[in-house]
Amino acid sequence: MKWYADRPVRLTRQLIADLLAVGWVALWIWVATTAHDWVLGLRAPGDGLVNAGGDIRDVFTNAASKARGVPLVGDDLSGALGNGTKAGETLIGVGNTQIGVVQDTAFWLAVALIVIPVLFLLITWFPLRLRYARKAGNTVKLRDKPDLLALRALTSLSPRELAKFPTDPAVGWRTGDTDVIEELAGRQLAAMGVRA
């Protein structure tokens, strides 16, 4: 396979197309990371819930342990304050759930923002490049066989290109006219961007 043409004009177009493809991927990676960071900024309320829940839990835990020392009602008071500890744990759980949802959303959004454009590129640009590489590679293998290159030119060149010949190129190829065969082979090589 031959990925790039030998002729400068076609080589330049291929290089520009490949650089645009790389730029396309880089752009979407940048968009994805920016969106990921922005969505992660939405986890601040969850962090606040976790911090508030931890503070509430600690306050009620300390209060419950000190309440145990109160005569007669210490155990009942400690049990009642223990419910505040559970409320703090609930807030921590809710905050962690919200943080998890935001992190999952940020991750999958970033994945989608990268995968979809890259798949689009692989479906549109890559088959064209692969087709060219195969055709150019096969053409290079036929450089020393002008008859086969001429035949390929007869089947692949446009009718407008073939009409530019002073005589019918198919007749010239069938009769073995070396000038026509060389011209057809040269045009096939030129069409693929390959040097003679």
Automatic annotation (TrEMBL):
Keywords: Membrane, Transmembrane, Transmembrane helix. The chain crosses the membrane at residues 12-31, 106-128. This is Uncharacterized protein.
